[in-house]
Amino acid sequence: MANVLLVSPALDPEDRLTAYWHYLLDAVPGVGQAFVDHVSSRSGLAPSKFLGSVDHPMGDRANRPDFLIRCQDYDVLFEHKLDSTLGRHQLERYLALCQTRGQQLALVTARSLPLEASVCASPWFVRPRAPGAPAHFLWQDVHDIVRGFPDRVARDFAKYLEALGLTHFDWAGLGDPFTSDEAAQEVRSLYDGLSPMFRAPGVSCLKTANSLIYQIRRPFPPVHLINVGPLVSVAEWDRRVWGRVMALWVWAPRPGGGHQRVLPQAHGYIRGSSPRIFVDDQASAAPVLYDREVFQERQYYVPLTEVLVRSRELSQDRLVSFVRTAIDHLRGRRAHVQQDRNDA
């Protein structure tokens, strides 16, 4: 049996989730069968008896699939995704591996990912067949399955998924912006309320294609870039907020690509903000892809349910208020409350 107490703290979030999922399937009778039944009933795959699972089964030099579910009548390889995207021809390569081994392939993600038509049409690819459903399975469905088991390990795993934002979310009857095109388009329309805040000469605002991110470039010195948009979770690096958030994150240039911060350190929450807006400067300070001297230095976030409410108009008002408050703090116009970093 897998032992979560031996999981390396150096594992990335996707590998850690895979290790915990493996432990749950080994530890709690019935969860594996319930998951196999879910996959088969939604894909048209024949029902079969769950036999066991393998964390990161053997692949080959080019292919490292995440997970294997063994059934009495077939085996299914699984690729797991959270925030990362698929690698170049990743599923195509895995399908070729499956054909040589007589296995099936499935994908489990936190958000809807576009897939090549050739992948969806492959007889080796297992996917939901319901009209309008994503062409792959979702961790949100795993949460629905697991929370029905009274075992302590299952309840803890369900809470872990909740912390990562991997639960079903329906915004005003439109669906989940991470999995519904209609809901995503409505979120993008809310960004129209932000453009009046950034009309200074040289500032550009952009709704990114195939993304829920709104970019504000060169808003004011020394800030080079501000991104606004929802995140599935920040719980991997900040335990103050569980589940989905609306975030604003800030990049600034560091001449020479050095380690010296440009913005002053800020970790806590903005005084008087309601709902509370958290400030974080501990996230990975990685440069943007197109400029190695521009680094992420700060994030602001608030629970997504405090922004996306039933009224579209009120949702836009709350988004504008969140961004305006964060910008005021960024420009030194609002105080923040310092917190002990051990509380994060």
Structural write-up:
- The protein contains eight helices and 14 strands.
- By secondary structure, the chain is of the alpha+beta class.
- The chain has two domains: 4-163, Trna Endonuclease, Chain: A, domain 1, CATH 3.40.1350; 181-343, 2-Layer Sandwich (Yope Regulator, Chain: A).
- Strands 6, 7, 8, 9, 10, 11, 12, 13 and 14 form a nine-stranded antiparallel β-sheet that branches. A five-stranded mixed β-sheet has the order 1-2-3-4-5.
- A hairpin with a 2-residue loop joins strand 7 (214-220) and strand 8 (223-231).
- Helix 5 packs antiparallel against helix 6.
- The model has no long low-confidence stretch (mean pLDDT 91).
What's the CATH class label of the largest domain? Alpha Beta
CATH fold assignment of the largest domain = Yope Regulator, Chain: A
Mean pLDDT figure: 91
Number of domains: 2
CATH hierarchy: architecture of the largest domain: 2-Layer Sandwich
Question: How would you concisely characterize the structure shown here?
Answer:
The protein has 344 residues and is α+β, with helices and mostly antiparallel strands. It has helices at residues 13-27, 31-43, 90-101, 117-121, 139-146, 152-163, 181-190, 312-330, and strands spanning 50-55, 67-71, 75-80, 104-109, 137-138, 204-207, 214-220, 223-231, 245-253, 268-270, 278-280, 287-288, 291-303, 336-338.
